[in-house]
């Protein structure tokens, strides 16, 4: 009797649990069944036991089925357990299907798990977006380039890109596109013979950059590059230097001037040193002359002692010396102006 009562209680509890589970998932099961995306009660129970929200999986499957896509719950569950955004992937697949874009669930899941917004990528593929080059959010609003004639130009470009779903996994992002386009524009302007050619035909720059294949190995395909603004730096009261070539030439001339001044100063110092050296040599020669003149009286005295010079000879020599001094004095007075002569 006791065994039968226990068995009856267990059976009753089992029935109550089954009924409770049935009614717990009844609304969700009915909604899936009425939408044509039927999911069994046991499958819903398995989701709950595996820690997967059944409502999320059912909603995703209903959206896919209503859009004409057959995505089984196992694939949705696997993507959720991998950490993916199930609803975002389903919306991307629906958008791709409506736009006749070939996108499989496996690729969409891979793009989502790679950290990319697959739904936004599909929308960008259908409706290309425009990005500014350079990126104003980075603090730079204009590209700075210099033409061959030395004129500095400020350029702003707008790049229209379309997402490339085939290269979305592992492809470079928008920052790479902006960097490549900026580099291409600066290079194209740098190879231009004159800034006037850039101002007259900015489309030549955009075509040259567009033909460079800058979107290789990126997640985007460049549709067009448009030069939105191009101007000469330094105009309209701006402080930037416009003619970089002239500035460089001026700085080079100033540097050459300072170099030549330094060389001239060096030569001047050398000349002054040489002049001082010559003066010292003159003083040295004069000292030698005075020393030689000092030996004349000694030689005369020696000649007197040895009898080689008489008194009359000495007087005649003195007369000659006095006569010579007088002649030199007279010649000097005649060479002076009349006002400088004594008694004038």
Describe the overall structure.
- By secondary structure, the protein is α+β, with helices and mostly antiparallel strands.
- The chain folds into three domains: 12-126, no CATH class; 129-242, Tetrahydropterin Synthase, Chain A (2-Layer Sandwich); 245-334.
- Helices cover 62% and strands 10% of the residues.
- It contains twelve helices and four strands; from the N terminus they run H-H-H-H-H-H-H-E-E-E-H-H-H-E-H-H.
- It has helices at residues 2-34, 41-49, 54-66, 73-81, 86-98, 105-113, 118-126, 174-190, 195-200, 202-210, 244-306, 311-335; strands at residues 129-133, 143-146, 152-163, 220-232.
- Strands 1, 2, 3 and 4 form a four-stranded antiparallel β-sheet that branches.
- The protein is rod-shaped and about 180 Å long.
- The termini are far apart.
- The relative contact order is 0.06.
- Residues 235-239 have low confidence and may be disordered.
SSE order, as H and E?
HHHHHHHEEEHHHEHH
Portion of residues within helices:
55-70%
Estimate nothing, just give the exact number of structural domains: 3
Strand portion: 5-15%
Mean pLDDT: 80
> Given the helix and strand composition, which structural class is it?
alpha+beta
- Which radius of gyration do the C-alpha atoms yield? 53 Å
Low-confidence stretches: 235-239
Please give the largest β-sheet. 4 strands, antiparallel
Work out the helix count.
12
**How many strands?**
4
Mass-distribution shape: rod-shaped
Distance between the termini: 175 Å
């Amino acid at each position: 009797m006791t065994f039968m009562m226990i068995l009856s209680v267990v059976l009753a509890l089992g029935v109550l649990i089954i009924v409770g589970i049935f009614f717990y998932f009844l609304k969700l099961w009915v909604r899936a069944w009425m939408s044509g995306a039927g999911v069994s009660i046991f499958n819903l129970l398995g989701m709950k036991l595996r820690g997967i929200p059944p409502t999320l999986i059912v909603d995703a499957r209903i959206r896919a089925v209503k859009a004409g896509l057959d995505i089984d719950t196992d694939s949705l569950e696997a993507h959720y357990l991998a950490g993916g955004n199930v609803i975002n992937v389903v919306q991307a697949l629906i958008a791709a299907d409506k736009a006749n874009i070939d996108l499989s669930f496996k690729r969409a899941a891979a793009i989502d798990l790679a950290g990319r917004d697959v739904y936004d990528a599909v929308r960008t593929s259908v409706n290309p977006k425009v990005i500014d080059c350079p990126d104003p959010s980075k603090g730079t609003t204009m590209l700075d380039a210099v033409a061959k004639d030395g004129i500095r130009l400020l350029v702003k470009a707008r790049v229209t890109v379309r997402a490339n779903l085939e290269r979305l996994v592992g492809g470079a992002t928008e920052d790479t596109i902006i960097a490549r386009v900026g580099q291409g524009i600066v290079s194209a302007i740098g190879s231009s013979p004159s800034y006037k050619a850039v101002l007259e035909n900015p489309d030549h720059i955009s075509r040259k950059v567009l033909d460079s294949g800058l979107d290789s190995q990126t997640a985007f395909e460049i549709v067009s590059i448009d030069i939105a603004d191009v101007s000469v730096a330094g105009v309209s009261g701006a402080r930037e230097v416009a003619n970089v070539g002239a500035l460089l030439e001026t700085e080079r001339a100033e540097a050459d001037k300072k170099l030549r001044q330094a060389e001239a100063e060096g030569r001047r110092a050398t000349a002054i040193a040489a002049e001082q050296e010559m003066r010292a040599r003159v003083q040295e020669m004069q000292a030698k002359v005075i020393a030689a003149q000092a030996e004349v009286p000694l030689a005369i005295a020696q000649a007197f002692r040895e009898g080689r010079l008489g008194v009359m000879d000495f007087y005649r020599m003195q007369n000659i010396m006095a006569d010579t001094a007088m002649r030199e004095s007279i010649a000097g007075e005649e060479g002076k102006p009349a006002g400088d002569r004594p008694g004038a």
